[in-house]
Amino acid sequence: MKLLCITGGSAGLGAALVSLYQAQGWQVCEFSRSGQLAGHISVDLAADNAANLIDAHFSRLASQTWEEVLLINNAGMLSPLAPVATLSDEAIATNLNVNFNAAIRIIAAFIRHFGDLPARKTVLQVSSGAAIRGYGSWSLYCASKAGLEHFIRALAVEQSTMTHPVSCINFDPGVMDTAMQAEIRSRTAEEFPDVGRFIARKEQGLLRPPADVAAAIARLVASEIQGGERYSVDAV
User: Fold this and answer.
1) What is the pLDDT of residue 236?
2) Euclidean distance between the first and final Cα of the chain, in Å?
3) Does 83 sit behind a cis peptide bond, omega within 30 degrees of 0 on the bond before it?
4) Averaged over 155-160, what is the pLDDT?
5) Is the separation of the CB atoms in 95 and 102 below 8 Å?
């Protein structure tokens, strides 16, 4: 019995991962607002109670016997895509709740419930080039991705001393053909000065299909990975 828990599996890379792992016979629990595939559990990650709801599901699942358990933290939002001076407190709070606060609380809940399980266990945080490079108008997204990468590195140090450690890694999926990319291309140069480069990537056919990135993640998870490392789709 193998279990995948994934956030943000309603579309794009998340949906591709759900389909791939289900086809391989894994049980999948997918947490998002609008997922349509089997295993979907409706959760609004911007809500204060989101992590508590997922914690309850982890508690139930951890009482079962598993050969392998995988958490892929994939959920994320780019909006508000705008200069810092124009951001409202509400918009800042919503973005950080989804991209950072909920992500850490969900990973912490996973460790609490599955940490002592004597099985292969992995936490994969879907990162971004924005974790290591600043983009104007992406301040919240960049900050969240950078913070989560360092969180994963610190968590990997903790886990290295555990009897049944969880392998915790970051993964950069590169630039994919997703709704987030479409959102970026829809912005004006005033909203996002670098928009022309993203439009050119689409026109030049440089965006990876999500299914290809999902397959790369599956290969990586099945391999011998090093906790705390940052992996890239280009190297898998």
Assistant:
1) 83
2) 25
3) no
4) 98
5) no
Partners of 232 in the β-ladder:
172
The amino acid at 142: C
Size (the chain), residues? 236
- Residue 175 to residue 172: CA distance in whole angstroms: 9
pLDDT band with cut points at 50, 70 and 90 for residue 97: very high
Query: How far is 165 from 158, CA to CA, in rounded Å?
Result: 9
> Across-strand partners of 163?
none
Strand partners, 113: none
CA angle 130, 216, 186 (to 5 degrees): 40
Q: DSSP letter at 74?
A: -
* CA-based max dimension of the chain: 53
Report the C-alpha gap between 56 and 162 in whole angstroms: 24
Distance CA 101, CA 187 (A): 27
Predicted structure pTM score:
0.93
CB 74 within 8 A of CB 7: yes
Q: Would you say 174 and 127 are in contact if contact means Cβ atoms under 8 Å apart?
A: no
What amino acid is encoded at 3 in this protein?
A: L
The CB-side HSE value for 47 (13 A sphere, CA atoms) comes to 12
Across 57-119, the runs of DSSP E, i.e. the strands, are 68-73
DSSP 175: S
Give the single-character DSSP code of 227.
T
For residues 233 and 223, give the distance between their C-alpha atoms in angstroms, rounded to a whole number.
Answer: 14
Burial of 23 (0-12, 13-18, 19+ CB in 10 A): exposed
Give the residue among 48, 49, 96 at the shortest CA–CA distance from 76.
96
